[in-house]
Amino acid sequence: MPEQITILIPVFNDVKSLNKLLSELPGSLTGFTAAKFSVLIVDDSSTEKEPVSAPSFFSVQQLHLNRNIGHQKAIAVGLAFIRENYQCDKVLVMDSDGEDRPEDAAALLTASQQNPDKIVFASRKSRQEGIAFRLFYRLYKFAFRVLTGKKIAFGNFLVMPKPLVEKAVYYSEIWNHIAGGILKAGLPYSSVFTHRGKRYAGKSKMSFTNLFLHGLGAIAVFIEVIASRLLLFSLVLIVFSLLAILTLVGVRAFTDLAIPGWTSTVVSAMLIVLLQSFLLSLFTIFLYLSSQSQRKFIPAHHYKDYTGRVETIQ
User: Are 264 and 42 contacting, i.e. CB atoms less than 8 angstroms apart?
Assistant: First the structure.
């Protein structure tokens, strides 16, 4: 039997780019003669009503969401919908704007044939954005590595085998960030180098604020790890400040080495550090307890809260 591959494409007010992507994809996928392709478009409650034009190469469905929930959540909903309604072997997730190039989609599928039991991510070898974006992206990756202890160098351009889709949709972490959730879940993955393409039309919906929140979403997936590291850091500061205070008081009381006025100044500074460290530890504990008390959104169970009608594109 031919391999069944479903292409998942989230879209929000960008149908012009989507139509161009759908017209170019068949040319890049013709080499996969033993595969049959279908497309699921997740319309993230677009306000622009432009018709989707799909080539006969694909069977295309469009899942309309009842409200705008954002790029990452739309993908999570799409994965849960595919898990329940599609008989396929793999899911290819890509954006509609042209920055995920059709030729790189073919490269991901080829790599997936060599690693059939792993998720294959696209790792950007080059990017089209300006200096400010690249600088922020480097800072984000550095902060992610420091806070979580893990390295992230990819996004949501990926190929996922259906058995791993069955697992991924039961992890609440993918609701905030697909790549971060997969890292947290410990699902097997590999990556291939790709180049970021240019947008087909219009402007990117990813403003600096959205990009900042997107980065925070990836970091928030590892809230338990971050809380433990912050708590350990605050305890180290508390111990250090206490030892410093005791040492200074001992030098002042039992030796002649103390410099007049210097001991009280340093002790005051250490008391401030001690108080701030204590407040940081309390904040970390409450933050962790708050995250644990909240209801977990499991895409496999709760995705229907956001889904509307399903449209077949002729």
Answer: no
Is residue 310 pLDDT above 90, yes or no? yes
| 95, 180: one domain | yes
* Structural domain span for residue 210: 3-133+140-222+297-313
Q: Which helix (H) or strand (E) holds 294?
A: none
Model pTM score:
0.84
Contacts with 223 (C-beta within 8 Å, 6 or more apart), sequence order = 287, 288, 291
Same domain as 168, residue 281: no
Q: Are residues 213 and 270 in the same domain?
A: no
Contact by Cβ (8 Å): 208, 276: no
Q: How many domains does the chain have?
A: 2
- Of 129-133, 173-177, 245-249, 308-312, the one with minimum mean pLDDT is 129-133
pLDDT at 259: 65
pLDDT in tens, 225-283: 888 888 888 888 888 888 888 887 787 777 776 666 676 777 788 888 888 888 878 88
List the structure tokens of 213. 């929140």
Measure Cα distances from 204 to 95, 161, 217, 222, 267 in Å. Answer: 11, 29, 19, 28, 53
Q: Identify which of 54, 212, 43, 193 has the alpha carbon closest to the alpha carbon of residue 127.
A: 193
83 and 179 housed in the same domain: yes
